[in-house]
Amino acid sequence: MPGPLVGVRVLDVTTVVLGPWAAQTLGDMGADVIKVEPPEGDTTRRLGPARHPGMGAFYLACNRNKRSLVLDLKQTAGRAALLRLAATADVILHNFRPGPAADVIQAAAGLASLQTALVGEPRYMPTIVADKTSSLAVLSAVLSALFHRERTGEGQAIEVPMFETVVAYVMVEHLYGETFVPPIETAGYKRILNRWRRPFRTTDGYLAVVPYTDADWRAFFALAGRADLQADPRFRTLESRLANIEALYEELAKIIAGRSSAEWLEALDRASVPAMVVNTLETLLVDPQLEATGFWKIVEHPTEGTLRVPDIPTTYSRTPAEIRRLPPRLGEHSREVLREAGFSEAEVDDLRASGVTSLGPGP
């Protein structure tokens, strides 16, 4: 069976990561996604290492399962062509209003300031978390609207603002005491805003150890041979641990430093206490779990050669998602898409001659 969104057509008139990643996921689910690009292409085509111009790593990460159509929307004929295409589409994604850079949203939504508790000053997270979080919100909104249309036959306009989306994301746990009016505590989840809450050094590396429940902590104290901590009233219950969390995590760091990562992993696994090795970007490529599930796929792109791509994480028992198309070259499908929308060969040639569209490399 094809993917769950087979038969749905999406016009992806977005740039950078937020919109393109959401549209890619719709394509992964089976939708026919048409990426509408200006003559110079999406800006991500020039971001990151590349074997050929216009096929940068950023672009390759966000644009599989799509067809590329060039339209110059600054020209009247380009806008008219887009409206003609819209009549054939179920979803149109766009971000025509200039959006602020992702690091500006991190600052505005409080993400950057959260780092102050850990490193003494605001810092950006070293991943484009605002774009990717908002992208998931776009995906959820589109799927909800499609479901509504299936029930009622009614379409609608949707707006997913990045600022409000990321604020909602941040404040799930950090609204905290300000949940109540008047507030009964300050904002900020104290367990997370703790300089000792981090991967801990072992004798030969680093390990993430995260006891959480009462049973976890009892098991950990027993493994560590620390009956004194088990009996300490500061650490006996969830409430008392939270009130003394900084002292508790400082003790945890000292204890973990006494054994190797392998020794701790074996002991903690037997005790069912959450713990994990600290992967790097490089070790993720050979992670045993990801190797067992076949997450990293090696594919042959017709122009870019051998590429490594992540698999589609979600599985469907009846309608499996599939990587059907690798990221297209700029304008690779312009003629094909325009002809499907009813444009004649002469009309396509006129659009090409006027610079409204281009037909990509090759014959």
Summarize the structure in short.
With 363 residues, the protein is an alpha/beta fold. Helices cover 40% and strands 11% of the residues.
Would you give an account of this structure?
The protein has helices at 18-28, 57-62, 76-86, 102-108, 111-114, 116-119, 129-152, 162-174, 214-224, 227-231, 238-243, 245-256, 261-270, 288-293, 334-340, 345-353; strands spanning 9-13, 32-37, 66-70, 91-94, 200-201, 206-209, 275-277, 296-301, 305-310. The protein is of the alpha/beta class. The strands form three sheets. The protein has a four-stranded parallel sheet, with helices on both faces. The mean pLDDT is 94.
Defining key terms:
363 residues, alpha/beta, 4-stranded parallel β-sheet, 3-stranded antiparallel β-sheet, 11% strand
Please give the structural blueprint.
Layout: E1 9-13, H1 18-28, E2 32-37, H2 57-62, E3 66-70, H3 76-86, E4 91-94, H4 102-108, H5 111-114, H6 116-119, H7 129-152, H8 162-174, E5 200-201, E6 206-209, H9 214-224, H10 227-231, H11 238-243, H12 245-256, H13 261-270, E7 275-277, H14 288-293, E8 296-301, E9 305-310, H15 334-340, H16 345-353
Parallel strand pairs: 1-2, 1-4, 2-3
Antiparallel strand pairs: 5-6, 6-7, 8-9
